[in-house]
Every structure is written in C-alpha cells, then in structure tokens.
Design a protein that fits this description.
With about 270 residues, the chain is an alpha+beta fold. About 30% of the residues lie in helices and about 30% in strands. The protein has five helices and seven strands. Strand 3 and strand 4 form a beta hairpin. Helix 3 runs antiparallel to helix 4.
C-alpha cells in the first residue's frame, strides 16, 4: 500500500534533520566568549590589592662645640691725632698721619719675642681709615690666657709711642679637621631624628620603617656660615668685618649647628 504524499514528505524531512544532527556530534563546539573587564574595572581591582604605607617627616638637630685648633686675631689702632703738624708755624700745612715702618716693626718684634712665629704676624696700614693700622696674627692651640697675653703684648708695643690708641680686637677660631666634627654632629642629628620619628609613630599606633629621603642644613660659628672655618684655608677670616668682637669670657671653640630633615616610612 503506497504512503500518502504529505506523510511521505514529512518523513523524508525528519530523516534529513536526524542525519544533520547526527553529523554534528563529535565536532568541537566553540565556547561562548567571556566578557572582559573594562580598563577602569581593572584599575579599580588593582587599587584594591595595592597597599600604600604612610610616611612621616621630622627634623633632627644637634649642636656641638669643638676646641679650636687656631685663633685668628685682628687688632685695630687709630692715630691719637688725626693731623700732625707744627702749629707754631702758621704757614705749615697739617699732614694726615702715616703708618711708619717703625710702627709696624715695633709690634712685630714684640709678638715674635712673645713666641708668635714671624710668619704668623702681619701689621699693615688700614686704608679704610687714614693713619690707622691693623695687626693680624694667628695662634696655634689657643687658650684664653694666651690670647689675652698676645693682645696685651701688641697693645703695649703700639701704644707706647703715643701715636696710636687701641680700638679693640676681633677673634675667629678655626679647625684642622672639619669633617670629623661635622660627621659627629651628623650622627647626633640622625639619632635625634630617629627618636622623634619613633615618638610620633607611636602616637599614631604605627612603627617607623625605612628612610625615604634626607636633607641637611649646617651652620658654623657665631656668624652662621655654611662653610667650616678650616685652618688650612688661607681665606679663613680674611674679612675683618666677618669676625666677632673678642669676648674674654668665652672659651676658644668652634660651634656647629646641624639640622637633618628625614622622611621615614610609617607602617
């Protein structure tokens, strides 16, 4: 008995579908692509996994004084009379006083006799003031008593001629080894900075970690110079006005003030 045409067509189509479906079995299937996070989402995820420790900054300070290896003394003398002339002769023109070679020799001889090497003594006219004179000398391993002795010796030698009056003394001190003193001050400042940082971190319930940065400020002497007054420096205290007035109550020392700015990790 023959099949109905419509039924026959339906059966044929079903067979084709079954055949195609069977043929697909065993063929690798392509997985559905995963949705990748955006760049913003990636940055946010990275930020969540990163940890950033805090930091704190402190300034450690130290102040040291070292015995001076050398004293630089400068003495000034002004003429007793600005003009010297024979006033009994009305035709005589008053003359501005001049520093005589004998004035210089007298004070140099007195100081060398007192034990100062001739190479460490220099007397010369003060050209900033007519008729005035200055005496510059250096003393190794100075003491207060020795400095005062040399000042008195020079004053006596100059004033005895009655041509000059003493105008005071200025004194500066130098060191043979600036680096050793500076290193000592630096170490003391670092210890001070560490103590300050530990105390601050403790208040915040944290601990001090590694050092992030360092910077320093150094000043020397009473004039707060950034350069150490080295005995080997021929330019040390050549400027009369850079020297402090001599104070016999102060010992011959060189002062250094050292500041160290430190930034630490705080964890």
């Amino acid at each position: 008995m023959s099949q109905h045409p419509i039924l026959s067509t339906a059966l044929t189509l079903a067979a084709v579908v079954t055949s195609v479906t069977s043929g697909l079995i065993g063929i690798p299937q392509v997985a559905q692509a995963e949705t990748l996070p955006s760049s913003t989402e990636r940055l946010m995820a990275q930020a969540e996994t990163d940890t950033h420790d805090g930091s704190l900054s402190v300034t450690g300070v130290s102040q040291l004084t070292a015995s001076a290896d050398q004293a630089v003394i400068v003495l000034s003398y002004y003429p007793n009379s600005y003009y010297s002339a024979d006033y009994s002769d009305p035709d005589t023109t008053p003359q501005i006083p001049q520093v005589l070679p004998s004035d210089i020799q007298n004070v140099v001889d007195a100081l060398t006799t007192a034990g100062v090497p001739a190479s460490n003594v220099k007397a010369f006219p003060d050209y900033t003031s007519a008729g005035s004179m200055r005496v510059r000398l250096t003393l190794a391993q100075p003491t207060q008593a020795r400095i005062e002795q040399m000042i008195d010796t020079a004053n006596t030698a100059v004033i005895k001629t009655n041509r000059y009056m003493a105008s005071g003394a200025v004194v500066g001190y130098t060191l043979n080894n600036c680096q050793a003193v500076e290193n000592q001050a630096r170490q003391a400042a670092m210890a001070d900075a560490q103590n300050r940082a530990t105390a601050l971190a403790s208040v915040a319930g944290a601990q001090v970690g590694r050092v992030y940065s360092l910077s320093e400020t150094v000043s020397w002497g009473n004039n707060y110079s950034t350069v150490c007054p080295a005995s080997s420096d021929p330019a040390a205290y050549t400027d009369y006005y850079s020297l402090p007035v001599y104070d016999p109550s102060l010992p011959p020392t060189v002062r250094i003030v050292y500041s160290l700015n430190v930034t630490y990790e705080m964890k």
